[in-house]
Amino acid sequence: VVGPGHLLHATVGQEVVLPCRLSPSMDARSLEIRWIRYLVSETVHLYQNGKDLYGQQMEEYGGRTEL
After folding, report:
1. Contact 30, 50 (CB under 8 A)
2. C-alpha–C-alpha distance, residues 40 and 46, integer Å
3. Which of 13, 47, 60, 66 is the most exposed place for a label (fewest CB within 10 A)?
4. Rounded CA gap, 5 and 8, in Å?
5. Is the pLDDT assigned to residue 67 strictly greater than 90?
6. pTM of this prediction?
7. Would you say 35 and 49 are in contact if contact means Cβ atoms under 8 Å apart?
8. What stretches of the chain show up as alpha helix (H) in DSSP?
9. Contact 27/21 with Cβ under 8 angstroms?
């Protein structure tokens, strides 16, 4: 996964898009994509088998992320 390569700035409460892409380019629908804070148990967002699994994310991120 490749990110933008520069800092993104936001203020509290502002919506932010965190751009990224796969290199080499491929279809990600069949992949597991897990965004974590520090530990694997600290899931911010989980995408698996073509679906967002919101029930697996930390409570404080509920309704705040999408892929």
Report:
1. yes
2. 11
3. 13
4. 9
5. no
6. 0.78
7. no
8. none
9. no
- Comparing C-alpha atoms, which of 65, 62, 67, 35 is closest to residue 51? 67
Where on the phi/psi map is residue 4: left (φ > 0), alpha (ψ -120 to 50), or beta? alpha
Which pLDDT value is given to residue 24? 93
Residue with tokens 């509290």: 12
Q: Are 65 and 57 in contact (CB under 8 A)?
A: yes
pLDDT digits (tens, 9 = 90+) for 20-41: 999 999 998 899 999 999 998 8
Alpha carbon dihedral 38, 39, 41, 47, in 10-degree steps, equals 70
Q: How far apart are CA 11 and CA 24, in angstroms?
A: 33
pLDDT of residue 40: 87
Written as one letter, the residue type at 26 is: M
- Distant-in-sequence contacts of 57-64, Cβ < 8 A, 24+ apart: none
